[in-house]
Amino acid sequence: MNSQRTIELTELINVLVQEFLEIHQNLNDTYTGISKQELNIISIVGRSGSVIMREIAEQVRLAVSSVTPTVDKLVEKKLVRRERSEEDRRIVTVALTEKGQKIYQMEVESYIRLSASILQALSDNEQEQFLRYFHKVADSLRKDNAGTL
User: 84 φ, ψ to 5°?
Assistant: First the structure.
């Protein structure tokens, strides 16, 4: 399975991953008091809008007890807030504060700029093909990962 195409794809994916990691690092440098794990949770909550602790833990692949101290720090830093469900007081959701939303928005804008630069390298027709292929790959990965959770 270690064909030349597989090796080439691995190297290209690594270039993309490094670019995305650099965005995370730049945000980390901008907001020096925020760890990578905290930034990851801000991203998860930002994408979801409001999320329960169990869902955060599933996405970072840790136990809720391991995620709780990180969320506590984010609450202290006023980047997220906990909210109790009106229907079921046992359910606590986590949502971004205005300050947390600004950090998340900076991340999204950075990712969009990177994606735009990727697409700029392609003609309109190539962009359509690229996106079609990327959807196909993403759908396949989602199906594969759905079976492992």
Answer: -85, 140
